[in-house]
Amino acid sequence: MNNLSSPEDENSCCESDSQLVRKGKRRGRMLRDPTSGGGSSSSSTSGVQMTNVDGGVEQPMGTTPMASYNEERMRRKLQFFFMNPIEKWQARRRFPYKFFVQVVKIILVTIQLCLFAHSRYNHINYTWDNRVTFSHLFLMGWDESREVESYPPSVGPLALYVQQDFFNTIDYAIEGYQNLSQAIGPYSYPNEDNTMAPMHLCLYRYKEGTIFGFNESYIFNSEIDVLCLNLTGNVTDIGSEAYLASKDIVVSFSALVKATLEMSVKTVNFKAAGPIAPPDCYQFNIIILFDNRDHDGQMLLSLDAEPIRLNCKGNIEYTTESDIDDTLNSILNMLVIIVCLVSFALCTRAVYRAQLLRVTTVHFFRTHFGTDLSWEGRLEFLNMWYIMIICNDVLLIIGSALKEQIQRRHFAADEWNMCSLMLGIGNLLVWFGVLRYLGFFKTYNVVILTLKRAAPKISRFLICALLIYAGFTFCGWLILGPYHIKFRSLAITSECLFSLINGDDMFATFTTMSGKSNMLWWFSRIYLYSFISLYIYVVLSLFISVIMDAYDTIKKYYKEGFPLSDLKMFVGTINPEDYIAATVTESDSGESLIDLVYRFCRCPRRPTGSDGPTGYTSLSPKP
């Protein structure tokens, strides 16, 4: 407290605020010695000698009325700090800037997310539909049953088993690419004159890979060589096998690891066009993969199409309307970035000022009470809601910047996923932040306090449950993996067990077990029955009981009162009606946003007309 009056002004200060001093003495006594009676003449707490002054109120030895005045001022400062925005408005008519910014932010980011989600869905759905089309045009053996992903799969993997099928598949893709103009879709070749571009074939082979199965011998070098060439000229007439032979290229399937066949197609998407949105232009880089890494006689066949968005050269009259759409989206992105920057600045400033107040409070407790503030009391100054808001501000700023780059066609395919990840998590945390303001009401605050109370016990409980879960996961993966489709990998095993905990697809899990080994069949029954019984009937019940115990404790606290830390005991009951608006000083409550604007503009600060001889205005409660 650096702005206190000089000793010669002490009497006048104490006389003008005698009521405030006496109130500070009474509350200070409760914190120093909660068990002492009001009429005792002396006591000692934390090694500090107490003396009876002013009608039986105890203070530390040597404490002056000015010290009690400082104590009450610190209490008022802490009371104002722990007020919620509603109480601060009632106490000082202080406008809740952070709350207003959060309301504006949640509206803007939700609108931004809805627009981006619609655009992303159209983009992903369009690329997936084109991938299905390309599979029909260029992939031999593809049929409609493979277009819908089902579980368990209705058909096996698309694969090649005969060497000639490898060359036939390449010839089928070449023929489909040559007849691209016959496709229903508006597809074109990537060349400016719309002539067929050469297809690109790459062979990934072991440097040496010859197998002599008849006498169990082989020649092998694990180094992989890559051979790439363009399929040009008369490849469409003589076929891929003869073309490779003319280039002195022999395909050894025992050494072949994988092969890729690449081509490019351009198209325009009219569906994305709207009243102010232009069509989208794309180039699809198509890759047909021949996967022979397992060397198990089965060469897996797949097709992937990577979209690249291009700048369209369309109707000039449409350009004006498309610019409107780009401008509106850019304005929305800029507004989100500006609002998030303001929110970030306000919340960072609040966290910083809270830590300064924590340091001041710790020093006050040491000098005034001769004791350190407890860790529980120190944590009261760390507002995790503000930390969460700062995190979502950072995510939204990055996501909005990526979205702006996507809209300006300066992007790669992965930026769609990165942008959606940033905006999605940021929006999730923004809506979580609404819980902070619902917590100001008793009915909604019960849920938040219950989760907060149960969090430590739940964490300890989950650690034990996860250890058991990990044991079941590793055991099931090792033993049942080769014989059960739901245990093929560690991740799939974990997902299967988690589904069983929630009662999903139990019968199918029992029936799809292979019967090749009677011992493993019986083990699978014992394994599944034990896991399901343990987690559904025991673990989940205990988990719910932990939460219900915390809920009952919170209800008890609402009836009998919450336990108080040393800081809360010092602060006491917060009553906004005790404050007189416009009488709290700058040093007690900090600069307002308007004061910061005045200081930034280098304008003289508005006079309050209430400065007293000590440099402070009165903090006396209403009579």
The N- to C-terminal Cα distance equals 26 Å
Strand content: 5-15%
Total strands: the figure is 9
Count of alpha/pi helices: 19
> What structural category arises from helix and sheet content?
alpha+beta
Topology order in helix (H) and strand (E) letters:
HHEEEHHHEHEEHHEEEHHHHHHHHHHH
Helix content: 40-55%
Kindly provide the radius of gyration, computed on alpha-carbon positions and rounded to a whole number of angstroms. Answer: 37 Å
Low-confidence stretches: 1-62, 581-591, 606-623
Globular, elongated, flat, extended or rod-shaped: what is the shape?
extended
Average pLDDT, rounded to a whole number, is 78
Oligomeric state of shown chains: single chain
Major β-sheet profile: 6 strands, antiparallel
Strand order of the largest sheet: 4-9-8-7-5-6
Please characterize this protein's 3D structure.
- The strands form two sheets. A six-stranded antiparallel sheet has the order 4-9-8-7-5-6. It has a three-stranded antiparallel sheet with strand order 1-2-3.
- It is built from 19 helices and nine strands.
- Helix content is 55%, strand content 13%.
- By secondary structure, it is an alpha+beta fold.
- The N terminus and C terminus are likely disordered.
- The two termini are 26 Å apart.
